[in-house]
Design brief:
Layout lengths: L13 E2 L3 E9 L3 E8 L4 E8 L1 H6 L4 H20 L8 E11 L2 E11 L19 H24 L2 E2 L8 E4 L2 E4 L6 E2 L7 H4 L9 H5 L6 H17 L20 H13 L11 H12 L17 H4 L2 H24 L13 E4 L8 E3 L5 E5 L2 E6 L6 E6 L2 E4 L5 H10 L4 E4 L2 E4 L2 E5 L10 E4 L2 E4 L14 H10 L7 H25 L8 H4 L30 E5 L2 H5 L14 E4 L13 E2 L9 E2 L3 E3 L3
Parallel strand pairs: 22-25
Antiparallel strand pairs: 1-2, 2-3, 3-4, 4-6, 5-6, 7-10, 8-9, 11-14, 12-13, 13-16, 14-15, 16-26, 17-18, 18-19, 20-21, 22-23, 23-24
């Protein structure tokens, strides 16, 4: 049985005429999360739905079913009530009817912000920032204090989150957003049966959270915040550490660290009466501690230059560099686009990469609704195909789509420029340049049709599949329309090499962590994603060759041949084959020989196994 058939929603399903389901993301105990596209507002959202599989599993237990549904509705109500920049926003709530096994099933869903980036874990060091006070102050100012302000907004509505941990705090660029209100509780709600309420992650659970869950209130959140603060300074909590206990720094040597140690001890006191009375109080003592010994640094989006003691400790150097690069990149995207994954490419044996540091992971939603990821620049060595000689080049940082452009997104593009297009005999042209071959609709990749003066999808089940039969001209026109461009061959292979080495390096670590629920990141429970410093789960194999995932081996992509073509805007200079900038890159088992420079193709050609993705420059 196809794995997708086990999911409650099929790709291409349109909910309430508003949201088209593009991708299955993750499945939890009773819910499933999908990436969807809001049709009228043209933005990606996350849709969380009660799992039909879960409903079937408790079909004979009406009480447990009602408890689960009540919890789901409580989550919706909790998220809807909070309006704060550091709390994930909910857009809609409703029901959707699906056909399963010849019968209709009514499922409840929540539509909310889709955050493609990492979690708060990505801002923390596995080893902790101790003893580097500058790093600690910067992290507190940029990330932790905003989280406290978000929790304060929750508590002001007389609610407690009761599941705070780094993986439940999403990072939208540099903005922290508290998510996953599945265990939230309001004093105004009727209590939910305790037998199902004993949930959470032990490392962050207060004693009463586990032993007397009905008494877990805002002070349980304070305990969790104390544990997060402890991890940031001391390093990730060991799975062997005893849960529900007070924690403290092992050897705080400076007045600042000693003050932070006292804050951590108080926040994580085992008796809740001994903790801070409110997050406001915790915030005040934390700010007082940050003022100790020197004027409190003001966060400007960049990490201050570190002292000489930091330079002598190499294990922290790249952490500081990472913060600085991310800040510059985010500022650049803000100016370029007005708004502010993993890289899904395959390694080619003809290339290799020498990276200056661990690659950064920062994501944002581009104008076309596709998520992009920052690819940090570095030295790149490419085999010229003639032997062992390798050419070294410097690749500048850039952003890249984390997935190939889908049928749905390309249809949106075609309709937005429809007045400039001509459709003749199944060929879509713009100013005499062929953009797309529509085909006869007999093959799975021929899903775009032109009827009633508009472009449509023949079958919405293929909405999330990569668009094919698109020409290089079509790919370049799409990229230009959304303020992006196609990648050069070297950029494509550079990003592919990073992706390969990331997965190779992480796989060995995951073998030791896969059995620990606290090491699963937020996206595995809610939206599925990762960032620097947090573990990445082993990716699943694709269900079919047309799903647009990284591990498919039958699709290649359009690219720009060289940097010189890029400087000329990718425009054709003459009719000579060698002067066209259009090449195809990708797996060896697809079209062509996959030479290091890419396989030349005329820009008006379209293939059933070739798609594309876009990149965006980072200004210097």
């Amino acid at each position: 049985m196809n794995e997708e058939s086990k999911n409650s929603l099929e790709i291409g399903t349109v909910i309430d005429g508003k949201w088209v389901i593009l991708e299955f993301i993750a499945k939890g105990g009773m819910g499933e999360v999908y990436r969807a596209h809001q049709i009228h507002l043209k933005r990606d959202v996350a849709v969380k739905v009660i799992s039909e599989e879960w409903l079937e599993s408790i079909a004979d237990d009406e009480e447990e079913r009602e408890i689960g549904l009540k919890r789901f509705r409580n989550e919706m109500q909790a998220m809807a009530r909070v309006r704060h920049p550091h709390v994930l926003q909910i857009f809609d709530y409703g029901t959707v009817t699906v056909q399963k096994n010849g019968r209709e099933v009514v499922l409840e869903y929540i539509a909310m912000e889709y955050i493609p980036g990492g979690t708060l874990r990505s801002t923390m060091s596995e080893e902790g920032f101790d003893p580097e006070e500058d790093l600690i102050r910067s992290w507190l100012d940029m990330f932790f204090i905003p989280v406290l302000e978000g929790v304060m907004a929750i508590h002001e509505l007389k609610m407690a989150h009761r599941d705070l941990k780094p993986e439940n705090i999403m990072m939208d660029g540099e903005t922290a957003k508290i998510a996953d209100f599945g265990l939230a509780h309001s004093y105004q709600w009727e209590p939910v049966t305790q037998s199902i309420d004993v949930k959470g992650t032990p490392a962050y659970m207060s004693p009463e959270h586990f032993f007397e869950f009905d008494k877990a209130d805002h002070r349980s959140d304070i305990y969790s915040l104390g544990k997060i603060l402890f991890e940031a300074i001391n390093g990730r909590i060991s799975p062997k550490a005893k849960p529900f206990k007070q924690v403290h720094l092992s050897n705080p040597e400076t007045p600042f660290l000693q003050e932070l140690d006292e804050i951590i001890r108080t926040a994580t006191a085992e008796e809740r009466e001994k903790r801070y009375d409110s997050v406001e109080q915790l915030l005040k003592v934390l700010r007082d501690a940050m003022d100790m010994g020197k004027t409190r640094q003001k966060s400007t989006g960049n990490i201050a230059l570190l002292g000489s003691s930091f330079i002598n400790k190499p294990r922290y150097i790249w952490t500081g560099i990472a913060f600085a690069i991310v800040s510059v990149a985010v500022m650049a995207i803000w100016h370029l686009m007005g708004d502010p994954g993993r890289i899904e490419l395959l390694i080619d044996s003809a290339t290799e990469i020498v990276k200056p540091a661990t690659p950064l992971s920062r994501f944002f939603l581009a104008k076309d609704g596709i998520n992009m990821r920052l690819i940090s620049g570095g030295d790149f060595f490419q085999n010229d195909g003639s032997g062992d000689d390798k050419q070294k080049m410097l690749i500048k940082s850039f952003f890249m789509d984390e997935k190939t452009v889908s049928n749905y997104h390309f249809v949106e593009f075609l309709n937005s420029v429809k007045n400039t297009l001509v459709v003749q005999k199944g060929v879509v042209k713009q100013k005499e340049k062929t953009l797309l071959y529509l085909g006869r609709g007999k093959a799975p990749y021929e899903q775009i049709i032109f009827q009633h003066d508009r472009f449509h999808l023949r079958d919405t089940a293929f909405a999330g599949d990569p668009v094919k039969r698109v020409t290089w001209y079509g790919a370049a026109a799409y990229a230009t329309h959304y303020g992006k461009r196609l990648p050069t061959v070297n950029e494509w292979h550079y990003a592919a090499s990073i992706n390969h080495k990331e997965h190779k390096a992480v796989d060995s670590k995951e073998q030791d962590r896969s059995s620990l629920p606290e090491h699963q990141n937020m996206h595995e429970n809610h939206m599925k994603g990762q960032g620097v410093g947090e573990s990445m789960s082993q990716p699943e194999e694709p269900k079919s060759p047309d799903e647009g995932t990284v591990f498919q081996h039958t699709i290649r992509e359009w690219a720009i041949r060289s940097e010189s073509d890029l400087k000329d805007g990718g425009q054709t200079r003459s009719i000579s084959d060698g002067e066209y900038p259009s090449v195809i890159v990708g797996p060896r088992n697809a079209v062509g020989s996959n030479l290091p420079g890419g396989d030349f193709r005329y820009p008006w050609e379209g293939y059933p196994d070739v798609g594309f993705r876009c990149v965006l420059d980072v200004s210097e």
